[in-house]
Amino acid sequence: MQLSSKRVFLQSIARDFKRTGAIAPSSKTLAQAMTRELAKHRRPDLRVLEVGAGTGNITEEIVRHLGPGDDLDVCEIDRKLAGIIRHRLKKDPSLSGVEASVRVINKPIESFDRRPRYDFIISCLPFTNFEPAAVHDIFELYRDLLKPGGICSFYEYILVRKAACLMTGKTAVGARVSGVSKVVRNYIDRYCYRHQVVLLNLPPAMVHHIRFAEG
Question: What pLDDT, on a 0 to 100 scale, did the predictor assign at position 66?
């Protein structure tokens, strides 16, 4: 990541940690784990959605697996971070030579029309910072946005929610974090078919790949 991108990322954390939800950009190892199913199930004319792209570290890995005829929508709610990705698409060699069609969308994922159009969703949203009901709604939105058999990949920081619950105890924050854990665990238990631990990330993360049951 270039120095200007790092500076904007840190500024975004300071401005709105709830939206950014990370203390450091995603590592190369995490990006590879997040795109493993995309690479494994490669086929023509893919449509991919990335949600919460930050400065584009995982975007860079996604486009490595895309080619002519593929489409990537990059959703980033932070205006400055979205601007960084647009700049990288024009100037950064790791993104500027992309053969797939890439569109950067600077609006909340909740505003998307609920119709099946994506083969893959790569989600980097910080669920721990959301309300439980919002997390449930986002997963259901992902369900609606995915084509039948589509795959959603997301990660969570290892032990972060448990540590947050221990630190906050029986407070409103603790209850919220505990509620988020229950929602996420429900979707993992019902739909996850593959996990991967990524230790080479700050903090370490667990990647989950889920496929919603049809019907």
Answer: 95
